[in-house]
Amino acid sequence: MGLRLKFLSILVVSFLAALAASSVVFYRVSKESALERMHAQIAVLRAQALAVRSYTSEEIKPLLSDMSNVQFLPQTVPSFSAQTTFNKFRDHFPDFYYKEAALNPTNPSDLATPWEADMINRLRTDASQTEVVAIRDGDKGKQYTVAFPLAIKAEACLSCHSTPDKAPPSMTALYGDKNGFGWKLNDVVGAQIFSVPIEAAERQIWDNLLLLIESMSAIFLVLLLLVTALLQWMVVTPVIKMSEIAERVSMGDSSQPEYEHKGSDEIASLSRSFNRMRRSLDNALKMLET
Helix (H) and strand (E) counts for the chain? Predict the structure, then answer.
């Protein structure tokens, strides 16, 4: 294997190792950044949901309180308003998900599914947790999911959820007296659960990674060609010429001209040393002849 091939092999192996390492780092950093962006998206969605809940509680519910005594209106319930509004949002972004799930809800549609119940129970086991994050497989691919605890913080909430006899008759007439009761102050009874799709973010990560690999490979190829040309011009060609001259001189051909490589680099120094050695050898042979 020649010097040039050895040198280029080392460069190629080094590049492939660096490319693999940088690709792994790039993927991990990009994925972490994508997860942070998705978490920020969920923070915005939650802020919107909380705003709707607050508006319903402060503006809508007082206006319809008299009517609710006759007929229970779900529209006066903050969670119902927030989820209904989000369903309209899903007309434009169907891959996004929001639900206020409970283990024992008044409205059967709010009953937690098994995976939602698991997230709620994780929140219940540690009251200090402000959120629980999970990546799960949804109907349309992987979903980045965050659950925020829904805890009973106000005595007013217990007026509808402590015992059936204390609940508004219009509510029990609509939903019955079997579910949504037995709640206690400070208990985590459910969770606000948001999910955003991961597929688009992952596809973007892989597209960017492919672009990185292609760009680095193109740059390396250009540098490899440049280094090969410089190596051939500055090292390989002078060494081959000196080797050919040395071979012929060693066979007794003293008519070979001296090889002069101009410059101050190592090859030029080698050529000068080679010429001095040759002149010394010629002088030694002449002295032996005389």
Answer: 9, 4
Whether residues 60 and 158 share a domain: the answer is yes
Q: Are residues 98 and 218 in the same domain?
A: no
Low-confidence ranges of the chain (pLDDT < 70): 1-2, 66-70, 156, 158-159, 250, 252-256, 258-261, 263, 265-266, 281-282, 284-286, 288-290
CB atoms within 10 A of CB 116: 20
pLDDT of 282:
67
Distance CA 162, CA 11 (A): 74
- Identify whether residues 115 and 222 lie together within a single domain: no
Are 224 and 11 contacting, i.e. CB atoms less than 8 angstroms apart?
yes
| Alpha helices, H only, 71-181 | 78-89, 114-125, 158-161, 169-175
pTM tops 0.85, yes or no: no
In whole angstroms, what is the distance from residue 165 CA to residue 203 CA? 54
pLDDT in tens, 79-123: 899 999 999 999 999 999 999 999 988 888 899 999 999 999 999
- Mention every residue, 6+ apart, whose C-beta is less than 8 A from residue 196: 38, 41, 42, 45, 95, 96, 97, 143, 144
User: Which of 157, 172, 197 lies at the terminal end of a domain, its last residue?
Assistant: 197
Is residue 204 domain-resident? no
Domain of residue 261, CATH code = 1.10.8.500
Same-domain status, 86 and 154? yes
Residues 131 and 182 in one domain: yes
Output DSSP code: residue 258: P
- Look up residue 142 and give its two tokens: 């992987």
The 8-class DSSP code of residue 37 comes to H
Q: 3-55 and 78-89 helices cross at what angle (nearest 10)?
A: 130
Domain count, the chain: 2
What are the tokens at 64? Answer: 């319809």
Give the structural domain span for 224.
211-289
Residue 274: predicted pLDDT: 72
Does 202 reside within a domain?
Answer: no
